[in-house]
Amino acid sequence: MAEPCQVDFYVLADADQSAERLACRLALMAWEQGYTAMLLTGSEQQARQIDDLLWESPPDRFLPHGRAGDDGPEAVTVGTADELTAGCGDVIINLSPDPVPEPGRFRRLLEFVPANDRERRRSREKFRHYRDQGLEPASHSIGRQ
């Protein structure tokens, strides 16, 4: 039997912290550990912004990445929920406002808890969603970046 999906919530300490920048760092870490990753976005506009950010981050390195649906496999892909498939990555880094459907298809799922109240409520709903799926999410406090 396959291992259950590991779900981790990264709790941002203040509103100045960027979930997008942290997501790029986590994608780099996944790649360095030999995993593939998908940065799941809530919109096509956000996907373009993340793609641009990956060209800048980290400034001294290149992280091989591409858009979902591009030719050839990439270590890191950027896409929307419509492009989420079981084979799109070992690690799903969710920047979308919705929980990942059928999270058990993936090895690892990373979520973010922004500092503002509205988005924290949404994150709590995601946390409950994953618990209802039989998963045990963990949370990690992230200090200032």
Automatic annotation (TrEMBL):
SUPFAM superfamilies linked to this entry: DNA polymerase III chi subunit (SSF102400)
PANTHER family: DNA POLYMERASE III SUBUNIT CHI
Keyword Methyltransferase: no
Region of interest (Disordered), residue spans: 118-145
Species in which this protein is naturally found: Elongatibacter sediminis
EC number: 2.7.7.7
Listed InterPro entries: DNA_pol3_chi (IPR007459), PolIII_chi_sf (IPR036768)
Gene3D superfamilies given in the database record: DNA polymerase III subunit chi
Superkingdom: Bacteria
Keyword Transferase recorded: yes
Name this protein carries in UniProt: DNA polymerase III subunit chi
Database matches in Pfam families: DNA_pol3_chi
Residue ranges of coiled coil: none
GO biological process, one term: positive regulation of DNA-templated DNA replication initiation
GO molecular function: DNA binding; DNA-directed DNA polymerase activity
Annotated keywords: Nucleotidyltransferase, Transferase
